[in-house]
Protein 1
Amino acid sequence: MKHMDEYRDRDVAQALSRKIKETSRRPIRLMEICGTHTAAIFRHGIRSLLPETIDLVSGPGCPVCVTATEDIDRSIKLAGEPRVISTTFGDMFRVPGSSSSLQAERAKGADIRMVYSTFDALAIARENPDRPVVFLGVGFETTAPTVAAAVKTARENTLGNFLVLSAHKLLPPAMDALLSSGDLDIDGFICPGHVTTIIGTSSYQLVVDQYKVPCVVVGFEPLDILQGILMLVRQIEAGGARVEIQYVRGASAEGNPGALRIMEEVFVPCDAPWRGLGIIPRSGLAFREEYADHDAGRRFDLHVPVAKDPPGCLCAEVLRGVAKPVQCKLFRTLCTPRNPVGPCMVSSEGTCAAYFKYHSE
């Protein structure tokens, strides 16, 4: 049955490819704003099934990649505080800061532990009541509700030693920043299915109304992506601009009210720095006063100098979609997955990492 499904999927993919080629008449640029989409597009050879009229551009969809260097530096400084246990997801270990990384600091003796969920970090806090345990909160709207739930649980159980360094990001403000910058002409957005299951399709309406750029919420299987591209092409060729859902098995207009409610109970939108995009208003999440005791940024002095990207690194430009990794002089030479210069080469969702693994140029 598996082999039959593979043949069927291949036939459907070829049929979708033909429809896209028949429908697409003029050059258009579509941006996927999710690192999972970026990796899937490369892994399944989606570009080879598209006509030359369609240019796929990767955007700021990798949460590790868009984390500002200053936030990395803060996490490194925090890890050096006496008795602090720092916890984070695996991708964050190797992201370079201004002069070090969490991996390097752990090698020097800092207590930095990899966890698979926020509640793993909460368990560590419960096991070490006399030590501050900090979770490095990185991620979009898919991650933030789970972090909020852990913080709420910590408060209910009087675990005052559980702290979060919040570097969370909100996706719609970044889309607005990309379109308002004037750096890049984008004809349509391939929107992430998992984020949209939380925030709902209504979150994209402002982008559609203000910029007349269509948005299609797309799943992560190759057929999902091809169908989503076809839906965008049809909208663009017809001169339309609206929000559509390809990922009907997971996304809806209202999203997940429960997840949004707990996120909004603990956090409030704030201005936040993005690598490559600068400060974007109301694009981050800060602690509400009621939960301020769990804010690592208030518990510790985490002021750091203004950081600069490494000389020659085009990670910022790649995240804005104005450059591709192959245009960077460091790509495949000084910057490799084993020795990353910028974060886009670290994460499995990073554009540079995807190009390195799958691109032949």
Protein 2
Amino acid sequence: MKKGDAESAIRALCHTWKAECFPATTTNDLHFSDFAKWIRDRQPDLFEFRSTMGAIANAERWFDDEFGQAWRN
């Protein structure tokens, strides 16, 4: 999988996951580990791209960006 394709899919799926699993939860209370498990159960290939940082680290950064949690890093 190409990194750009994975990024687009992961960013979109952040919002699908929140709507399905945590509709009433504020974005500050969302955790990447829960999202990563949800992705691994459905589309594990999204974490299979080449990256200097590592695929999981990139995915976590995109998750944080989508939910305004980048300040935590």
